[in-house]
Amino acid sequence: MDFSDHQAEVPLHVHRKGQLILALHGAVTCTTGNEIWIVPPNCGVWIPGGVPHSAHATVNARLNYLFVEPGAANLPEYNCTLSVSPMVRELIDRLARERADYLADSHAARLARVVLDELAQMPREQFNLPISRNPKIRAMAEALTSEPSDRSTLSNWAKRQAMSERSLARLLIRETGLTFGRWRQQLHLIVALRELASGESVQNVATELGYESVNAFITMFKKALGTTPAQYFKNRNAAMRSS
Question: Which pLDDT score is estimated for 156?
Answer without folding.
Answer: 96
